[in-house]
Design goal:
The complex is a heterodimer. Chain A is built from 15 helices and 16 strands. By secondary structure, chain A is an alpha+beta fold. Classes of the chains: A alpha+beta, B alpha+beta.
Chain lengths: 493, 427
């Protein structure tokens, strides 16, 4: 990738952790370490030693690995961040991802309830399970599995010397053709951060304040940031809230953001068995139904542009990464890409229901975007990831899925809104009983009423019913990913 | 079609009885469907019902006791509605209102004096909005079942590829005509009575004539008046101060406890009107205008572009000192507030810019709610808990209600300009 800036840079790239601005395509493998602080002083020393090794967003060329760090609310408190600043974090972050209300909002019920989670879910007032408290997440990115193992050995020693316990190590990987486990190419659409130097279509370039504190957001305002009086930063490590007022408050939030992390387990065999059943065993129909639900063909080609069949057998970078389309002009009725499909409801683009025109729609939709940095986990059932091969191979019982990771400055308006109003709400787009067919919660009141999926077409729609849940949540937490100076500030406390 | 109304009843809570009443209401509110104290589902005139406790206040010399609000959105004549409430839920009412001033002594309540009590404590609903005009409590789930049965019983049974829209319509009609339990759908629902239309268009005519008179006939008086009003507004907007307050976490969590349980949600919001007669009369005018437009312009299920509001109302309290807002809507708080900002900021700013601490506004209706974070903080800060909330059809959205009626009307033979192909898109 060329590192020549194509557009104006207005962000403080040197203070922004690299994982926010870059997908680290160079590193197919990753490992997420969930840490609990036992010895605060030792941890601060460790923080001070790692602060300069963390990849920022100014790099010209990546080194041979990348590491980044984020904190839970309890982690920040444990390190001694003052109460006044703590109070200014959002309610979502302070409460943690697992609360009774948030279970309803995010659809984390039934098997996805935090009481069954393998990690996380205990950072709020209510403890859902016996998982340990998480304070810090240390993320490592490397070239291959061996490399990750080697990095881990080195880093684990430092972490332990830093007074922390490694409770979980979760591995992320990159599947063939950048697919997720159901066999569809993933992670194609990303917003471009305004001021980052990257250039793309204007409608996909979003104000930095949606993803980073300290900048103008989608409503042309600077989001409320966790700040503190100048006296609390005697070594003058943090930036001033207002650069024109150096005597004023200090901005702990600047260049930081919230990170949502959910581990999503995918029932790959169940997914394709359902499609097969609906298609009476016909391969073409089975793939068509699954693609209607996803909104892209397995190769990644969008249905809005290629409505009839997958234009290619194997992904090809131009068609597979095709993100240059809308629905307003080409597919207003949903005949190509159904209203309720995963793709259309996670990003309605220029055709958000009940908006007057394409521009208004884009503006509103862009207030609900996130930077997604998810990675798959677990070995695929078959390397080809073709549905016919998946259906032929016996389910081996191994777990596989996605480490869903996203960055946003307003968890309630971005991640939680999308999860509730677009993914889980069965009334989305005037529909009746249609949550996201791929990853929604089909049975919100746990009354056995399963979900439907409506496929718009002439002369009258097709509908499939009784869709089970294919994706379960097995772990999760909300983190704050601070700017590099804020990490140094924490080390100085 | 039936005329829907909003009923607001306000009773003073007896001294020292607040905690007891709150506990009782919360117990009922925790499980309204199974409440044996108030058998809500037997209230066939009720779309929505809520009980809300409002804190007491002192305005200058005047002390206002804490009060209990009962609000319903109901069908048909008020007397029938009140009669049904006291007959079906009389004992529950006694349990609740024994905490309130002036209610009949225990053991002495009967239908007549319960009705008299409610009548006496009825207060004026300043502005009322419905997104499902004319549909009765019974009709809404009935039409939903029609829609669902056409889907599951007919459309899903085979492929319709290549068939003519008119032939599919015939098949749907035949299915409805021959299916047990759907006989009612052969006919249209009864139209509004003539008096309804007379009152509806009579009011419209009166308003248009009055406006014409003010603009043309009384221009020499109206114009300076409007100019003076505008200059005063400008002065106030320049000099009004505000506090940006974050709701304490505990209070926020009490609100959240009752949110996102169903497809639909509720909101109760209470804020002081800015002092002085200028703001009060401006507010009264804007509330009238919103009500008027809600009736004559936004009467197809969208209030200022928001398609998720079943019923909403504003009530001015205490001689215009406080403004109460009730809403019953689809989806989450974030979605609702986001729609306020993205779609209806002008109208809502027009109303709430006359209340304290609202984000800074220009020309009455601009800026204000457009300041997303300050507006959301303000809205949340003045939100109060709804102790009891009942909805008659929790799983049906406003858009569903209105779509179902369009489906039913065509089957019942109502003439429409919609093409058959477009009508089939409703499924």
């Amino acid at each position: 990738m060329s590192q020549q800036p194509e557009a104006e840079i207005t962000l403080e790239l040197g203070d922004i952790q690299g994982v926010i601005t870059q997908g680290y395509g160079k590193f197919p493998n990753s490992r997420y370490l969930l840490l609990e602080i036992k010895d605060v002083d030792a941890t601060k020393k460790w923080l001070s030693s790692i602060a300069d090794t963390i990849v920022d967003s100014e790099w010209k060329e990546l080194g041979d690995y990348a590491a980044n760090v984020s904190f839970t609310f309890l982690g920040l408190k444990k390190l001694g961040l003052n109460q006044e600043t703590c109070d200014l974090f959002s309610r979502e972050f302070k409460e943690g991802i697992a609360t009774d209300h948030r279970q309803r909002l995010l659809g984390d019920r039934g098997k996805s309830s935090p009481e069954h989670w393998k990690w996380g879910g205990n950072n709020g007032e209510k403890h859902f399970n016996k998982n340990p408290i998480i304070h810090i997440i240390w993320t490592l990115f490397g070239l291959n599995e061996e490399h990750i193992n080697k990095l881990y050995e080195e880093h684990a020693k430092e972490i332990e010397a830093g007074g922390m316990i490694i409770h979980n190590k979760l591995d992320g990987l990159t599947l063939k053709d950048r697919k997720e486990h159901f066999g569809f190419r993933d992670g194609i659409s990303q917003p471009i951060i305004k001021g980052s130097g990257m250039k793309e279509a204007e409608h996909n370039t979003v104000n930095a304040g949606e993803f980073l504190f300290g900048y103008i957001n989608g409503y042309e305002e600077i989001p409320l940031s966790p700040t503190m009086p100048k006296e609390l930063d005697p070594k003058d490590i943090l930036p001033s809230l207002d650069s024109k007022n150096p005597g004023g408050p200090k901005d702990f939030g600047k260049n930081g953001t919230y990170m949502v992390y959910r581990q999503l387990s995918q029932d790959v065999v169940g997914f394709w068995e359902y499609m097969d059943q609906q298609a009476d065993g016909d391969e073409e129909k089975r793939i068509r139904l699954a693609s209607k639900m996803v909104g892209r063909w397995p190769s990644g080609a969008p249905l809005a542009k290629y409505p009839d069949k997958d234009p290619m057998k194997a992904p090809d970078s131009k068609v597979s990464n095709d993100d240059d389309f809308g629905y307003a002009a080409e597919d207003a009725m949903g005949d190509k890409c159904p209203f309720g499909s995963h793709l259309r409801r996670n990003n309605p683009r220029d055709a958000m229901p009940n908006t007057s025109d394409a521009k208004t729609s884009r503006d509103i939709v862009n207030r609900h975007r996130m930077i997604r940095r998810g990675r798959a986990y677990g070995k695929p059932i078959v390397d080809t990831m073709h549905s016919s091969d998946i259906l032929k191979s016996p389910a081996a019982g191994q777990d596989m899925g996605l480490h869903f990771v996203c960055f946003n400055t307003n968890i309630a308006r971005q991640f939680e809104f999308v999860q509730h109003t677009w993914v889980n709400d069965p009334k989305f787009h005037g529909l009746y009983n249609d949550p996201d067919p791929v990853m929604g919660e089909p049975d919100p009141e746990l009354k056995g009423k399963k979900a439907s999926f409506t496929i718009q077409q002439a002369p009258v729609r097709e509908e499939v019913r009784d869709i089970p849940r294919f994706v379960e949540v097995i772990g999760g937490e909300y983190f704050f990913t601070p700017g590099i100076r804020a990490i140094k500030y924490l080390a100085s406390l | 079609m039936i005329n829907q109304h909003g009923l607001t009843i306000r009773a003073s809570i007896k001294d020292g009885k607040e905690d007891e009443l709150r506990t009782l209401l919360n117990t009922i509110g925790d499980d309204v469907i199974r409440s044996n104290k108030l058998p809500f589902q037997k209230l066939t005139t009720v779309h929505y019902m809520r009980f809300v406790m409002v804190e007491g206040r002192t305005f200058g010399q005047k002390k206002i006791a804490p009060s209990l609000f009962l609000s319903t959105n109901f069908d048909g004549p008020l007397n029938d509605h009140l009669k049904q409430i006291v007959e079906v839920a009389g004992e529950g009412l006694d349990l609740i209102y024994e905490h309130c001033v002036g209610y009949p002594e225990p053991g002495k309540a009967n239908s007549a004096n319960r009705i008299a009590y409610l009548q006496k404590h009825k207060i004026r609903t300043t502005t009322f909005y419905t997104g499902t005009r004319g549909r009765s409590v019974a009709q809404i789930p009935q039409e939903e079942s029609l829609f669902d049965r056409i889907g599951s019983g007919l459309l899903n049974k085979r492929s319709w590829k290549g068939e003519e829209p008119n032939d599919i319509f015939k098949a749907i009609k035949a299915y409805v005509h021959t299916t047990k339990g759907l006989e009612w759908a052969k006919k249209l629902s009864k139209p509004f009575p003539l008096q309804y239309y007379l009152a509806y268009y009579g009011q419209l005519l009166a308003v248009v004539l009055l406006l014409l008179f003010l603009v043309i006939g009384l221009l020499p008086i109206t114009a300076p008046f409007v100019l003076a009003w505008y200059l005063t507004l400008h002065y106030h907007e320049k000099h009004d101060t505000r506090k940006d307050q974050l709701i304490p976490m505990k209070r926020d969590q009490i609100l959240a406890r009752r949110e996102d349980i169903l497809i639909q949600n509720q909101m109760t919001h209470l804020v002081d009107v800015k002092p002085g007669f200028f703001r009060l009369y401006t507010l009264k005018f804007v509330l009238w205008a919103v009500g008027f437009l809600g009736k004559y312009y936004w009467n197809k299920g969208e209030l200022g572009g928001i398609p998720t509001i079943h019923f909403a109302r504003w009530v001015l309290l205490d001689g215009g000192k406080r403004l109460l807002f009730f809403s019953n809507f689809d989806g989450s708080w974030q979605n609702y507030l986001g729609d306020f900002i993205d779609k209806a900021a002008v109208g809502l700013t027009g109303v709430w810019s006359n209340t304290i601490n609202f984000p800074k506004t220009t020309n009455l209706i601009y800026a204000g709610a457009k300041a997303e974070e300050p507006f959301k903080r303000w809205a949340r800060f003045y939100q109060i808990p709804t102790q009891v909330w009942y909805t008659a059809y929790p799983n049906i959205s406003v858009q569903n209600v209105n779509n179902n009626s369009k489906v039913r009307e065509r089957i019942g033979g109502k003439s429409t300009s919609e093409s058959m192909a477009d009508w089939l898109r409703r499924f």
